[in-house]
Amino acid sequence: MAEYQLHSTDDHREWNAFFKKGATSLKIDPHFLDTSDTFWLSHDRPYPTLYQYTSLDDVLTYFTTSPPSIIHNKAIDIALCFKSAPSNLCGGGYEAKRWFSMVDDFFAKAETAVETAKNSYGITLNFVLDGDGKPWECKADKWLPWDSVWINTDEQSAACFDSDESFCSRFTILNDPAAADWVGMASSGYGKFGPDLSTPLQLWEPDSQSDITTFIDNYLSGRDAGVPSGSSLAFAINIDSAMFDVFSSRSNLSGDERRGYDVVVESSIGGKTPTLVPSETPGEFDLTYHTDTATYAKTISLSNPGSFSGTLTLTDSPTSTHLLPPHVLPPALQAKFDNVTSFSTSNSLSFVSDGEKVYASNVSDPANPTEPKVIGLGSFVSTSQLDDQLLLMTEGNHCYNSHKHNTRSFPLVCDTKTNPATDMCEEILDYSLASVANWQNWLEQAEDSDFTITSCNEYILHGSWGGGSKPSPALFPMDSSSKVGVMVAYESYKNAEESPCGTPVIGVDGIVVSSFSLATHTDTYQTFAVDPSVPSESEGDARVFSIILPVALVASAIAFFVHRRSRRRASSRSFNALSDDDALVI
Asked: What is the pTM of this model?
């Protein structure tokens, strides 16, 4: 079985969306500064005088003051990867004493918060020690009963791999990097961690499909051969959970352990411009795609349409059964654009790409569409609808969750402003899913609002799920009422370089079909005006880098000086792209 922990989730404004997507395990980075009495959450050095970072106190407030209902009566794991503790913590110096005092203070508050979360909301909140907080030497008996991760590079706890003597009993979670000797650890049954069937083996933090697939398949081979393998294999990831679902689906996971499907339809003849629509038969989809000389058609069939526990099969079928009716962009909306490279209309909403940005408009009255609002970047759009759930897919948007974006000090993930010239992620595919009502309400905000849809949006769930181009999606019902299935056909990832957003298998030339699930239990979005003082899209990054970099350097110099001194039925169609002659009927 494969699970995940979300890595460096230091902007707690993302958490509502994370939990609605299904996350139950987060890693955060409490960062010590010799100029502050607060642990600020940031993997890299934070600059709290310039940015409003999340604090450890904010974490406790989140879980004790009206936490989202989706996590009520659930267990939530929070790994505390303490960063930049003073050197020689056990030496008794001033900064070391201050660090211990700050951690002790948080621990005391956390004990109360854990009780409150449990008694008021049924939340079982589990804190785990990581980073500079791992309990050895003078920390061996600190902050009990919190457990700790074990990492092979820590000399102080090396003996704890196969021992529970003394302080080693605190190290209960194997948590090694992808570069560690996982084959060697498997040959020894993963030390004391393998026989523990209550705790996963955790590795960090691969973001390529090839690596994720290899780790899973090696783990399954050992487990099937009788190697003690913990409760599961958990990945600390920087990518979106939907991307993890897709990437892991190329592995040998099967039955109830499968997280989705990921199948190469054609690799020998290439293939382009796929179109996917649901069939009249539940669990079947009609796929059409082209080469330079011919058109091909296949039927996709799921043996268990309500989950991923069955099999996906592809059979040839006549192209005559796959014809779609013309799809028209309302002329009144077309007139608002100088250039349209892709569009898709579903229900009362139209989405348009001009090759760089994606716009949305309410076309309930086609003759009088609302003014198009920029909702993100992208060179291609497509949609699908099931009952009241509307899915938008885009190509070339900005990936908000990646190693770089999760770990940098600024801008924070939820403060990111994007620019087509610098922030489009080539051949990266995104999803945005919400009820039709939430889509409509989002577009009815005040005119000075920022309409961009990001991973921080809990009302329109958004993220990057894969790599390739020209996606054609179809939603389908799942057994779980809180989920919807996504089947999508697309042209394979052609880039020979790894993507910082997560890299699909490189070297495939053809059509790929992927399937994964998305959460549907979003709350109703109420319109509100955004503070106009927030930087606009055009000025956001410029302000960040022209002001913050020099000030940050000054802040660093001051800090250094101070330290030295004192530290349900698809009702719409898949993608609709414009032909070379710019016809608006497809």
From this structure: 0.89
